[in-house]
Structure formats: C-alpha cells, structure tokens
Specification:
The protein has two domains: 109 residues, ACT domain (Alpha-Beta Plaits, 2-Layer Sandwich), CATH 3.30.70; 139 residues, Trafficking protein particle complex subunit 3 (Muramoyl-pentapeptide Carboxypeptidase, domain 2, 2-Layer Sandwich). Helices cover 33% and strands 29% of the residues. It has six helices and twelve strands. The strands form four sheets. The protein has a four-stranded antiparallel beta sheet, covered by helices on one side. Strands 9-10-12-11 form a four-stranded antiparallel beta sheet, covered by helices on one side. Strand 11 and strand 12 form a beta hairpin. The two termini are 30 Å apart.
C-alpha cells in the first residue's frame, strides 16, 4: 500500500483572476501509432497557451479529450488554435468554448459524466453538500435518520460489492479492491486488519478523512458515520454471504483523529 496520494481535481470549473480561460474539446480516432494527445499539446505549446486541466477517456476506437487552457499570453487566437487542431489527421471533431467571464471557466462539453470506462453514469457532489444532507437527516429525524442512512449505505455497499465480487478470487483481493475504490471515489483513506477463523470473522477498519463527518462542527457525543457503517456491512455481506455487525468505535466528529469501525459476524 503506497503512501503516495496525488490530488485528483475533476474538470468541472476553474477560477483564476487575471487569466483568460477557455475550454478545448476534441474527439479523435485511434491512430496506427500512439501520439494523439502529444500532437494536440504540441500545438498548444507552440501557441504559448498553458494547460490548466485535462480529461482523457477512451470510447471504443475514439479518444475524448477535454482541456482547460489559459490563453492570456497566447500568440494566436483561440479560433486559430481550433483550426490547427481540426487539421490533425486523427481529429474527428473539435470545438472551443470561450467563457463570457475570462477568469472563470465551466466545462461546457463533458456530458454524460461517467465512471468505469463509461459503463456507469455518475453525478458530482461536493463533500460539503452530501455531508450536510446526511447531518440534516440526523438533526431532523434523530435515530430514524441514522437508521435511514445505515440502510442507504448497506444497499449501496451490497450492490457495489456484488458488482466486483466476480472480478476477484480471494478475500484479500476483494478487500484491496474495496479499499482502493473507497479512496478512488473520494470517500476517504482506508486501512484494515482482518482476522478470519473457521467460526469467526473480524475486521478493524480505520478511515482517515471520512467524507461523512465533514459537516459536523464541534464535538459530538456519539459516532455519526451511520452511512459508512451500512456501506461496510453491505460490502461484507456481498462477499461472505453473511450478516455483519459494524460498530464505530472512534469518530472524527467526536474529536478523534480518524474514524474506526469494527465488523464481526452476527
């Protein structure tokens, strides 16, 4: 498990006062030799434009490319750059969006938003939004809200686990995939210890930066990560086919450095 973590900023919007921002969208076909992205970036560099952000995805024999660019010191106009990009043999279509507000650019082309190589549609919420919504459930509904969050997490974890179970062969592989997907989806950083015996299964799960506690201010008297508890219970049920009790023993909302969960067979 690597300690290297590279921030992953999704290409949604960008604000930089004093800049002249634009978006370049390109659909290209696969060439006999690699180099589609290099050909486009070479034109951008020659135009003295800076690349602020890039999204590159594959769709069959096509490559979908989105770029946020800063053209404040450009030696050619955006339209001239566009014509040069369109002249590339591998480019099927291309457009440039110039924002009405030069220092603020919003992705005008990237839709639908997907994950898993385009097989699953996704939506983007900030952690602050979703954590605030979860907190509202508890504030307004009390224990009923906590139960609702647990069952919501359980169903999500169960479906999530079933979708990856057939891709792995061992429990170690399964738990490692789950750990990485938890991280890749922005839920938090996970470390776990497992103790598996013929008659019992126990897991200790430590989550750093758990998204669920983001909106909780001050010090809570009790753990608040009910959705995460349900998520863990559902993920384990999907693989082992058995029900687990999941208890949060430490919670960042209570002043602890991380959230810690203990899962054991019922």
């Amino acid at each position: 498990m690597s300690d290297l973590h590279v921030p992953k900023d999704l290409l949604v919007y960008y604000h930089s006062p004093g800049r002249r921002l634009l978006e370049l969208a390109v659909i290209a076909k696969v060439a006999p030799l690699p180099g589609i992205l290099n050909s486009i970036t070479d034109l951008i560099v020659k135009a003295n434009m800076r690349i602020i952000g890039v999204s590159l995805s594959s769709e069959g024999d096509k490559r979908n490319i989105l770029m946020f660019l800063d053209s404040i010191e450009a030696t050619i106009s955006p339209q001239e750059l566009l014509e040069k990009v369109k002249s590339l043999a591998t480019v099927v279509n291309a457009e440039i969006y110039e924002s009405p507000s030069p220092s603020f650019i919003i992705d005008a082309y990237g839709y639908p938003v997907t994950i898993a190589s385009g097989t699953e549609r996704a939506v983007i919420f900030s952690v602050k939004w979703i954590s605030t919504a979860f907190k509202l459930f508890i504030d307004k509904l009390g224990s009923a809200g906590a139960a609702l969050l647990f069952h919501l997490g359980f169903m999500m974890g169960l479906n999530f686990g079933k979708s990856i179970k057939n891709m792995v062969e061992t429990v170690d592989e399964y738990l490692e995939v789950v750990r990485l997907l938890f991280q890749a989806n922005g839920f938090g950083l996970v470390k776990l210890e497992k103790h598996i015996f013929p008659s019992s299964i126990t897991l200790n799960i430590r989550v750093t930066d758990n998204f669920e506690v983001e909106a909780h201010e001050g010090v809570s008297k009790e753990p608040v990560c009910h959705f995460t508890r349900g998520l863990i219970a559902g993920i384990l049920k999907a693989f082992f086919g058995k029900d687990f009790d999941v208890v949060e023993t430490r919670c960042k909302a209570m002043g602890h450095e991380e959230c810690v969960f203990k899962a054991f067979l019922k």
